[in-house]
Design a protein that fits this description.
By secondary structure, the chain is an alpha+beta fold. It has one domain: START domain (Alpha-D-Glucose-1,6-Bisphosphate, Chain A, domain 4, 2-Layer Sandwich). It is built from two helices and seven strands; from the N terminus they run βαββββββα. The protein has a seven-stranded antiparallel sheet. This is Cyclase/dehydrase. It comes from Turneriella parva (strain ATCC BAA-1111 / DSM 21527 / NCTC 11395 / H).
C-alpha cells in the first residue's frame, strides 16, 4: 500500500485565537469547500468547537457528481495548537489530516498535513497523479482563496 502526502502552509491574517475559533468550529467547513463538491454536513447539532472523539458525517461528490458518504473522527485536539481528523468511512483507504496553528507576530501560520492511501485500483500511482492529486490541489487552492477572503 502506497501512502501519499500533501503539505500546505498559509498565513492567516488574524490572531491565533480568532483563527482557532474559526477552524475548530465544524460548522465552518462548508464555507471553505468548493461548491462543485456538493459538500453537505449530515451530522445535526454540531458543537461550536471540535473535541477528540467527535464523529462528523458528510455527503460529498468528489468525482462525476456521485455522492459518497464520508465520516471523520476528530482524534486529537490541542487547543490553539493542532487538531487531527481521520476518515472512518469514505472514499480513501486511509485519510489522516493534521491541522497545525502557530502564532506568527500578529497573524497565524496554519499548516496542513494530509496522509492518504487509495483503495486498491489498477494503475494506482497514475490514478493518484492524474485524478486524486489534482482534485486535492483544486480543493486546497479554493480553500486558500476562501481563507484569504474570509480573513481580509
Amino acid at each position: 500500500m502506497k501512502i501519499y502526502s500533501l503539505y500546505r502552509e498559509q498565513i492567516v491574517r488574524a490572531p491565533l485565537s480568532q483563527t482557532w475559533r474559526y477552524f475548530s468550529n465544524p460548522n465552518n467547513l462548508q464555507h471553505i469547500t468548493p461548491k462543485e463538491l456538493g459538500f453537505r454536513v449530515l451530522t445535526r447539532d454540531l458543537p461550536q468547537e471540535i473535541y477528540a472523539g467527535l464523529f462528523i458525517e458528510y455527503k460529498v461528490s468528489p468525482l462525476l457528481r456521485i455522492p459518497v458518504t464520508w465520516v471523520t473522527e476528530i482524534t486529537h485536539v490541542e487547543h490553539e495548537v493542532m487538531f487531527a481528523d481521520e476518515q472512518r468511512i469514505g472514499p480513501y483507504r486511509i485519510w489522516s489530516h493534521k491541522h497545525f496553528f502557530r502564532k506568527e507576530k500578529k497573524y497565524t501560520l496554519m499548516t496542513d498535513r494530509v496522509d492518504y492511501a487509495l483503495p486498491p485500483v489498477p494503475l494506482q500511482s497514475l490514478v493518484n497523479k492524474l485524478v486524486v492529486e489534482r482534485k486535492l490541489e483544486e480543493i486546497f487552492a479554493f480553500r486558500y482563496e476562501a481563507v484569504e477572503r474570509i480573513f481580509s
